[in-house]
Amino acid sequence: MSVLLPEHTLSLQGLRDVFGVLVDNSIPNEENEQLIVEAVRRIAEIVAWGDQNNEPLIFEFFMEKEILKFIAALTCHPNHLIHIQVFQSLGIWLETMKTSTSKWYLLSNNFVNDIISYNGIDLTHDEVLGYYVSLLKRIALNLNQDTILLFRNMQSEFPLYTQALKLYTHENSMVRIAVRNITLIVYKVNEPTLQDWLRTTAAPAYFNSLVWVIGNHCMDFAKAIQQKELGRAEALAVEIVDNFQYFDEILSVALVDVQEILRSVLFHNLFTSLLIHSLTQPPHDEESGYLPVPVALYLLANALDIISDAKLLRSIVSTLVCGSPDTHCDSIPAPPRVEKETVFDILTQWSGFYPDPKTGKPIRSQSFRSSHRKDRDGDGDRD
């Protein structure tokens, strides 16, 4: 390496020296990537030390020189090592900084929003993914009624939530659990602009898509049993039950509007249309779109055992006993129409069925993309 970092000191001068090296190497390449990684690591250490040891001049220099903006710009370069170090440094700051001014600065000006939203982050790289998810969790822990406005970007969206949703169907179960925990934190925050965004934009799209994904899992579970693929059937059963538990947690912690949306989507689009209707249909065949009766009963039993929401349970049990879901639609209204597009752009990556942006009815992924594209083109023509 042709350039060496200055001697490491935990001081204002140490920060000046290291930042000077970083400025001189602002464009990453194979020759300087290790130098940049070490410089970012040292800056993170010095700034964290200054906050913990009551050295305000260090953070004043950090803000004056807009070092966070400089570091955020580094993530625009597709470099695994640099991305990992940036995520790690941000996570350390959010975890260790005790001064409220410092945390507010870190979350302000959309620096963090821009970093986690960069499209060039390679989430197929295991180590990058690990640090990225860890950063999302750390950011979520700083979300509350007072800080929520710092989590909105210039388009009045919430990147923490939307970026997390991209990973909900990830093959790694720990990643899926992290995403669920982040959404639960978001649903608990009682702040009007966030709750309005969830009610009108994010929750209907996510819950509709999520329920159809679970519906696909139910169909695959039935097929695996029929084909005696017991290992696959067991894995699908675990995933379905985990999602029932996730639904129960949302219904327990979310505010009223989000609860009502999930309750409606679950009752009408999963329990009534798939599980309960499967009990009243002719003998099962693969083209029927319904489940074998034993499978439907097994899944219903698990759902009734896990879900504790009294209103949803009453509607399910009443429908089972009376055999006519139409007589109980008034108790849980039909799901809201999905008018917004923001979250649908994220969910186009999912396999299986999607709710139509206008009607909420299930359509297959290819049809979804065509319908979604046509709808956007039509809007553009009207403009």
Q: Compute the CA-based radius of gyration.
A: 24 Å
The number of distinct helices, counting runs of at least 4 residues, comes to: 17
Instruction: Determine the strand fraction and express it as a percent band.
Output: under 5%
Main sheet? 2 strands, antiparallel
What is the element string, with H for helices and E for strands?
HHHHHHHHHHHHHHHHEEH
Q: What is the global morphology? A: elongated
Low-confidence stretches: 339-383
Please give the number of β-strands: 2
Alpha-beta classification: mainly alpha
Mean pLDDT: 83
Give the strand line-up of the largest sheet.
1-2
Could you estimate the helical fraction of the residues in percent?
55-70%
Quaternary structure of the protein:
single chain
* N→C terminal distance: 55 Å
